Recover the amino acids of this structure.
């Protein structure tokens, strides 16, 4: 039997479940096409002279890689003309990008981290694109304030992982499905239907080099993980850290685990390293739709009312049992 393409999956979702409108289907297909182009460019690497620094910085104060800028431009150019968006926002742009007046405007806002994990590009480790879709306000050109909607208002979220396979993982709010890019046909094909995160796990992901900067609840929890079978958790744990959130989240979606990027005392004024609007919120929607849990140590991430477009947040996400455990330690 032939596999289901992304296009067929989206048409069936629109027709059978009214899960999406024709405009949202078109938006997702345009984003998927842009991710194919990014995948092609990422795979060229130094052959195209696109590794290394761009010589510019973003609002996060981070040096931009050439591929950060290229991926951002690919997503802008692919999405600005279609008439399905009112504006876009990106980790790589200080302010939202309004759809030019020369194009029709639509009813959605698209937010993205165009190339997450870009510090891995030059060492040929997996990177990815993360995207989130919100409804746009009626009428005028959206302001930054129009983007500041809690994660529960997302109509769709997904990521594309540029790894040994290029995979697009998507949720429309009714489960999580994974599509693998078939380079011979150029189609994303449904290969991982109804992805689900096991409630329990023996694997954790955190950057251990920051241990001396953690706050007490995180130190307590990680000490218990490291204590293994003879410790209070009564089992041994393994550790992984890809340093690409997309890679760590995909592993957790595939076999369970807990991913942690807590706030720490290096920059106590910052809530954490990861960004709420285009990293934590889309990943939290995906994780919850796959049966997992995602908090900032205190509250459900999707319930957080954003105050700034590029605000940061602490992230604990993945297998329900472990995320609830470390979250409970923050209440103690
Ligand atoms: P560190 C990539 O830069 C990123 O934003 C996430 O994708 C990743 O999980 C994290 O930062 C890695 O941070 O401090 O380990 O380099």
């Amino acid at each position: 039997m032939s596999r289901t393409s992304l296009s067929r999956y989206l048409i069936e979702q629109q027709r059978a479940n009214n899960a999406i409108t024709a405009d949202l289907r078109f938006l997702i297909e345009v984003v998927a096409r842009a991710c194919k182009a990014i995948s092609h460019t990422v795979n060229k690497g130094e052959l195209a002279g696109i590794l290394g620094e761009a010589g510019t910085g973003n609002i996060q104060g981070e040096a931009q890689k050439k591929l950060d800028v290229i991926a951002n431009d690919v997503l802008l150019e692919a999405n600005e003309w279609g008439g399905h968006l009112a504006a876009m926002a990106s980790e790589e742009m200080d302010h939202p990008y309004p759809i030019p007046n020369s194009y029709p405007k639509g009813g959605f806002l698209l937010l993205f981290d165009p190339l997450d994990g870009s510090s891995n590009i030059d060492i040929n480790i997996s990177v990815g694109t993360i995207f989130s879709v919100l409804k746009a306000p009626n009428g005028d050109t959206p302001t930054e304030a129009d983007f500041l909607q809690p994660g529960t208002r997302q109509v769709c979220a997904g990521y594309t992982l540029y790894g040994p396979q290029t995979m697009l993982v998507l949720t429309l709010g009714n489960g999580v499905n994974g599509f693998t890019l078939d380079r011979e046909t150029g189609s994303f094909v449904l290969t991982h239907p109804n992805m689900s995160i096991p409630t329990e796990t023996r694997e954790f992901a955190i950057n251990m080099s920051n241990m001396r900067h953690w706050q007490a609840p995180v130190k307590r929890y990680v000490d218990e993980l490291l204590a293994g079978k003879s410790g209070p958790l009564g089992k041994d744990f393994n550790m992984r850290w890809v340093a690409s959130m997309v890679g760590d989240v995909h592993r957790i979606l595939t076999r369970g685990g807990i991913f942690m990027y807590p706030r720490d005392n290096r920059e106590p004024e910052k809530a954490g390293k990861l960004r709420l609007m285009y990293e934590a919120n889309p990943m939290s929607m995906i994780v919850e739709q796959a049966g997992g849990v995602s908090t900032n140590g205190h509250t459900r991430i999707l319930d957080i009312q954003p105050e700034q477009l590029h605000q940061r947040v602490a992230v604990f996400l993945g297998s329900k049992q472990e995320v609830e455990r470390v979250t409970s330690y923050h209440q103690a």
